[in-house]
Model the fold of this input.
Amino acid sequence: MSITPPHESIENSRFCDVVVVGGALSGSATALMLKREMPDLNIVVVEKNDAFKRRVGEATVEVSGYFLCRVLGLTQFLTQTQMCKNGLRFWFSAQGTESLNRCSEIGGKYLSSVPSFLVDRAQLDEEVLRRAQAAGVTLIRPALVKSVKLSDGGQQSLQIQIENAEHFTLHARWVVDASGVRCLLARANGWWSANEKHPTLAGWSRWKCAKDWDSLDLTSEYDQEKATFVGIRGTATNHIIGEGWWAWWITLKGGDTSIGVVLDQRLSHWTDAAAPVGEKLRVFLSQHPAARVMMSDATFIEGDVHFRRNLPYSSSIHCGDGFVLVGDASAFIDPFYSPGMDWIAFTSCSAVRIILEWKKKGDLATELERHNTTFALSYTRSFEALYENKYLYMGDFELMQIAFRLDIGFYYLFVAGPIFSQGVSLLVQPPYSHPRATPIFLLMRFYNRRLATIAIQRKEQGRFGLLNVGQRDLFGGFNFKTGQLLKTLCAALIQWGVLEIRELLHSRFPARRAARPAVC
Done:
């Protein structure tokens, strides 16, 4: 057991301003930002683990990259100890595809122009927590928050269990719930609900000796593209795509590889065999030639294997006069576009704003209402615009090609771009929650639904995944130049329009069915 500062400081910390439940990234970042803004606040972080273990969420995207570098000040730490990420790559195949170079691929031609990272979350979480302590935050660790008694506008009471010791009570004006998927406050108060429209499950592990995407023996298979491809595949988040499922492939500093699969339980089936989860991962992914090649010599790390059903959920309440939920303690949708650390950025910055408003004796009721409304709206709209029924068309190269350009283009234009140009103040307005975002949300929801409908029609007609073999889409990448983004979006919208016309013609004048390729 370790309690930092020393044991006697617990007595002085039994009455404090803020207790943060959970010391991983969402909790430690909130504590650190609060201490920087209000050094006189007495802040206590209660962390259940004596050392952080590796966890899912190793890839940042542009907003979370901004948050880590420009808000938390972690640029040097990240560039010295973690991997710089080079965008997203997608690999498609059909039954009978035997070699990696025959898999259809979507990915950037160049290295990324906006910083993001591939991170070992245990190292990242420890570093941010260390900085919070250095700023004057009290850490009690390992210790478990057994229960929280909320008092609207009053003192909140927390029952704390320290390892091999009696319970004691902490009293605080504010509780920040950063308990992750435990969702301490949401579950205890009946606010938690599963997202039954999106029944996904995930299994993941870290592996040794996975092949290098950029090794000479593999790159020699791409002779035909030497003149056009100038990037690096191995430092991207590589996505292995199947029908109703996808897998991530993330290279970590030091040589380990994070490999995990996410599937829609309505469309694909996870094996129920008694084999370890790591072996189940190997068997499941070996149906795809890209994964089969890359895992041929790999072994999973014992004890670093995980599995979870029914991933998405949300809380109906995100804050009140005395508490606020941050990170996974408030909601989770889907890991496909790595939005988890973006959500941490928005929820943590908003939590700081709420407590600042209380400290200034401002209009707290209005701020609390705004927070609950915007985060509930952001969750609903993000789900409907990006993820609802996406797994229906995920296995089709052409449909995903259109969706990817539109999804990322709108993210750059309306989410990440304004934050980089206008600053941290926008991190209290989560995506798609502003009234001006309504037209973009409606457009995104519409094309997502149309692509899902087209996927169903293609499956019925035996045309799903016809371009999954032999296609290579190496595009120029995304940046914050408005003209270039609009050009990319317009081209994708035109491609979508042409697709709609072709699909209409197929419906009106059905040709003799081609044998549908079985998508992995």
The first helix runs from residue 9 to 12. The chain has three domains: 2-55+122-193+316-377, 88-117+199-309, 396-508. Residues 4-9 have pLDDT under 50 and may be disordered.
